[in-house]
Design brief:
alpha+beta; extended; two-stranded antiparallel sheet
């Protein structure tokens, strides 16, 4: 599928997936290989609502969550310690 720019220059449509009757989805093999996703990897699921309706679901590798959180709170902690 051709990448189509959406909300941000680094955001693109990579694939269209379906949810099965058990609530599971399959990440296509080419994307798993491209991003190094392996069986057993853990992800944090983040949902975004717009007017009380689900807009987006984002998956963040759990080991990267610490870096993201620290990047947000480190400046606050530094400011508080001054």
């Amino acid at each position: 599928m051709e990448n189509t720019t959406c909300c941000h220059s680094s955001c693109s449509i990579e694939a269209v997936v379906s949810i099965d009757e058990r609530g599971q989805l399959v990440l296509p093999k080419d994307l798993r290989e491209k991003y190094g996703v392996r069986a057993g990897d853990k992800f944090v699921v983040v949902s975004i609502e717009n007017n009380s309706s689900l807009c987006c679901i984002a998956f963040i590798k759990s080991e990267q969550l610490n870096d993201i959180v620290m990047g947000q709170i480190a400046p606050v902690i530094t400011t508080l310690n001054k």
